[in-house]
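quick q for whoever's on today - can somebody do inverse folding on this one?? i tried earlier but teh output was garbage lol. tokens:
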């Protein structure tokens, strides 16, 4: 590859300057087919209703941006992806507010799951409580080796994981293991999380900046022209929704999504490239 073409590709993959969402708790940057959503509430990136509103807006922004094909979630700083809900905030609000807070958080994470674009959580630090619940709503999870612990320790507060943890954890690990992890509330390293299927891969990186760069590079392997991003999104939708349906209903969903893909430019390109014995160049359309 020529130097000029390499420079052009590098520039096309550069992220735009990060923009802070209205409440200042999430930042948004995009470029090269990827949107980077960063939780920004130091020191531990604890989430509040204000953060969830920002995250909700960021997810919608990525969903409506046709140039974005993959969403990456990260936490600001070296030590935390997210340490869960802001306990001081919860201590100061009414039970009614707590309920509405949990409801909106559930809706926000469902919106992430329903978005037909691959979502990857970059776990570069402690990922506990609600932080792990946010990560579980992503499609894939990559963790920086030896950067922190994860787990759902809400039992120590006399409550349960209330942002989807009881449901998503059980769907990954099975019921018995999920109950054990939540009832004990123990924290564990990313290597164990990987063995449990909670983390897809562990990345060796000397610092958070390098780690995020590695995750962004990985995310772009699912973008055009390398991959048919519409098909990646459809696979996500078929699995995320279909796994909650009966087999017959899931197959119906699969057929409908396949019909949409067969009508796409990328399907025509992929099939033609196979017949012509060349590499496909997808456009994400």
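ok took a stab at it. sequence:
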């Amino acid at each position: 590859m020529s130097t000029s073409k390499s420079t052009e590709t590098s520039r096309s993959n550069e992220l735009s300057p990060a923009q802070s969402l209205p409440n200042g708790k999430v930042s948004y940057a995009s470029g090269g087919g990827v949107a980077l959503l960063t939780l920004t509430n130091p020191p531990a990136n604890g989430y509040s209703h204000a953060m969830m509103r920002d995250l909700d807006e960021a997810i919608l922004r990525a969903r409506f941006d046709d140039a974005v094909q993959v969403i990456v979630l990260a936490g600001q700083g070296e030590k935390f992806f997210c340490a869960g809900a802001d306990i001081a905030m919860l201590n100061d609000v009414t039970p009614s507010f707590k309920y509405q807070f949990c409801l909106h958080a559930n809706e926000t994470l469902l919106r992430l799951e329903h978005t037909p674009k691959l979502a990857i959580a970059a776990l570069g630090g402690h990922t506990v409580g609600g932080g792990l619940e946010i990560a579980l709503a992503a499609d894939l999870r990559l963790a920086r080796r030896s950067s922190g612990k994860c787990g759902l320790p809400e039992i120590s507060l006399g409550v349960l994981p209330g942002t989807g943890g009881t449901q998503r954890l059980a769907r990954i690990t099975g019921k018995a293991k999920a109950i054990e992890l939540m009832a004990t509330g123990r924290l564990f390293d990313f290597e164990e999380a990987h063995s449990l299927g909670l983390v897809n891969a562990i990345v060796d990186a000397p610092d958070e900046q390098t780690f995020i760069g590695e995750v962004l590079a990985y995310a772009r392997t699912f973008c055009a022209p390398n991959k048919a991003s519409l098909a990646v999104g459809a696979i996500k939708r078929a699995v995320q929704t279909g796994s909650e349906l009966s087999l017959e209903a899931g197959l119906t969903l699969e057929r409908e999504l396949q019909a949409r893909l067969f009508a796409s430019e990328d399907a025509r390109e992929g099939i033609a490239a196979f017949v012509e014995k060349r590499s496909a160049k997808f456009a994400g359309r």
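fwiw The chain has a mean pLDDT of 93. also Residues 3-220 form a domain with the 2-enoyl-CoA Hydratase; Chain A, domain 1 fold (CATH 3.90.226.10). so keep that in mind when u check it
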